Q: What sequence folds into this?
């Protein structure tokens, strides 16, 4: 019941977001046809605008967009002629999804163990080393890690290809450069969560009744300690899927991140609105999933009574 | 026994945290050096020379770039802009976030839910779209100003202001949520009720009782917002939306270095030097933020110094 209500609430939220994106891109100066055919005659320009219904008032355009959306049609791209926005998404989304999923697994695979390790070895020399490395990871953005990795492992070391998206080897450097920042962030959240959980009374109780340290850590504490990581992974995944612009740009990967930035820069109105909606849907659905999994992981969350 | 005030205790905890203290000292020295740098050397950041792509040496400590400009000078001026943008951007986000959150939490009811739904909507909108639209809109205005006979200096300053506004405008959301949550729980406390019973006005309650109580949390989050804004600015400059050449920030310097990667010759200093400057600065800012959090809120993260 609650789930249904949450799902129903998504619809007006998405409508507002689409309206906002729709109006915002049109507010920016310049139009989609500014850069090409500079000395276009006014007639051509008028015909182009009429062809894409850009000469109508904005509210009419929005209604037209909504009626298209009802049939699952985002409209035609103004920049990539002969392509609809749905085409572009269908081509780019699988690539971005793969890259995002790889980077997410990398971030979890590195970040969670590092965080648990740092929490268990608190105050020891090895903890300082791990904590410093995770902090460093948060301080070097993808556009620093990427070029450095390319320089050392691709240009000098010749271990991995420099760019493109063709095989498993091609995915290694982009995955690391995209995932490293998030690995550091997850490790820090995990460490914090673990330290806080280990200080709770129920851990003492478990220890008193003779639970082994390993079981204590992984069966009792982990469930609660991972909650901050879970709640962070919703926005993180959405960021990975769309915010991979730098990495996609650097490695010439045909994903969606490039379209997200370029469409806004070149005023490709339908593309911007389509991608913003996609991003919003992904983010909102992921947040919903996070809320649901919270309930599974933490029995204390009793706010929902189905 | 002498009683120790909470502020004093916090200061003591902060001083015991060596990483945070060291970062604080490092950052203040850095700011000082960045401020007096133009007085120490006469070298202009955009002075070109004939030695292109010189590796780091005694004359050019960080090497030179494609136009033979001294990279150390460029990094210093870039760091100045990056830090300035970080501080002012975080300040803008502080003002918007605190006002928004405080009003939503204090007034409550329908006003609260409307204000917070707006925050929800903005959360779900990719911030990069927002910034691009804002920056390009303002860019159009600047071009018109330039055409109207404004000096280059004036428009460059205005561009920087636009960058502050843009970065602040996208980073206040979490601040608003945090402040609203705090105010919501403070509002029902007995001392607020007592103050209201004594006839204090809403403005007085907000400014004298609620905001001072939120200050600790706000300072901590502000300290962590500065590195986030610096990072975001360098990302924007990397995209070419932030600082416009010939001015440079650390992000645009890194972007410049990244374009020089080729299989024939590796100009490693063009990436590593600005990246190193960015990383150490962010590292220090984050350490400082963590230290402040642990010092001001002992419950948030029991730290070595506490146990």
A:
């Amino acid at each position: 019941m609650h789930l249904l209500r949450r799902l129903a609430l998504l619809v007006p939220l998405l409508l507002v977001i689409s309206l906002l994106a729709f109006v915002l891109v049109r507010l920016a100066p310049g139009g989609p046809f500014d850069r090409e055919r500079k000395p276009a005659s006014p007639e051509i320009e008028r015909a182009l605008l009429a062809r894409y219904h850009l000469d109508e008032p904005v509210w009419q355009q929005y209604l037209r967009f909504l009626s298209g959306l009802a049939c699952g049609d985002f409209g035609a791209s103004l920049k990539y002629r002969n392509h609809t926005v749905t085409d572009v998404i269908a081509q780019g989304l699988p690539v971005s999804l793969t890259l995002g999923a790889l980077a997410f697994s990398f971030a979890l695979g590195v970040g969670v163990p590092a965080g648990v390790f740092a929490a268990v070895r608190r105050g020891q020399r090895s903890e300082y080393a791990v904590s410093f490395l995770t902090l460093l990871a948060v301080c070097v953005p993808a556009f620093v890690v990427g070029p450095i990795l390319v320089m050392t492992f691709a240009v000098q070391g010749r271990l991995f290809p420099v760019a493109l998206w063709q095989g498993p080897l091609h995915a290694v450097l982009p995955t690391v450069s995209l995932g490293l920042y998030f690995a550091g962030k997850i490790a820090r959240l995990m460490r914090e969560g673990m330290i806080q959980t280990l200080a709770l009374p129920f851990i003492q109780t478990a220890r008193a009744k003779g639970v082994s340290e390993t079981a204590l850590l992984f069966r009792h504490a982990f469930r609660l300690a991972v909650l901050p990581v879970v709640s962070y992974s919703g926005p993180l995944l959405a960021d990975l899927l769309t915010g991979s612009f730098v990495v996609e740009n650097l490695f010439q990967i045909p994903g969606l991140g490039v379209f997200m930035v370029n469409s806004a820069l070149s005023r490709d109105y339908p593309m911007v609105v389509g991608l913003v909606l996609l991003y919003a849907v992904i983010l909102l659905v992921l947040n919903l999933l996070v809320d649901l999994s919270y309930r599974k992981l933490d029995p204390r969350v009793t706010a929902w009574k189905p | 026994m002498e009683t120790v005030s909470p502020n004093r205790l916090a200061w003591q905890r902060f001083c015991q945290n060596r990483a945070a203290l060291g970062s604080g000292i490092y950052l203040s020295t850095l700011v000082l050096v960045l401020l007096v740098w133009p007085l120490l050397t006469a070298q202009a950041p955009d002075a070109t020379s004939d030695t292109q792509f010189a590796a780091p040496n005694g004359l050019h400590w960080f090497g030179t770039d494609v136009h033979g400009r001294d990279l150390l000078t460029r990094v210093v001026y870039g760091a100045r802009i990056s830090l300035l943008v970080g501080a002012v951007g975080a300040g803008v986000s502080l003002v918007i976030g605190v006002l928004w959150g405080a009003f939503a939490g204090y007034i409550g009811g329908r006003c609260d839910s409307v204000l917070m739904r707006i925050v929800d909507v903005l959360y779900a909108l990719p911030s990069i779209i927002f910034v691009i639209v804002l920056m390009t809109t303002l860019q159009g205005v600047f071009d018109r100003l330039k055409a109207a006979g404004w000096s280059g200096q004036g428009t460059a300053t205005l561009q920087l202001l636009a960058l502050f506004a843009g970065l602040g405008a996208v980073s206040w959301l979490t601040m608003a949520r945090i402040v609203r949550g705090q105010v919501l729980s403070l509002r029902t406390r007995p001392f607020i009720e007592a103050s209201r019973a004594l006839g204090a006005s809403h403005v007085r309650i907000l400014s004298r009782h609620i905001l001072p109580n939120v200050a600790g949390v706000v300072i901590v989050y502000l300290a962590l917002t500065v590195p986030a804004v610096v990072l975001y600015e360098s990302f924007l400059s990397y995209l070419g939306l932030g600082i416009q050449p010939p001015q440079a920030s650390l992000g645009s310097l890194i972007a410049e270095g990244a374009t020089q990667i080729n299989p024939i010759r590796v100009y490693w200093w063009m990436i590593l030097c600005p990246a190193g400057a960015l990383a150490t600065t962010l590292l220090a800012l984050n350490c400082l933020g963590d230290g402040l959090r642990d010092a001001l809120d002992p419950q948030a993260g029991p730290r070595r110094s506490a146990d």
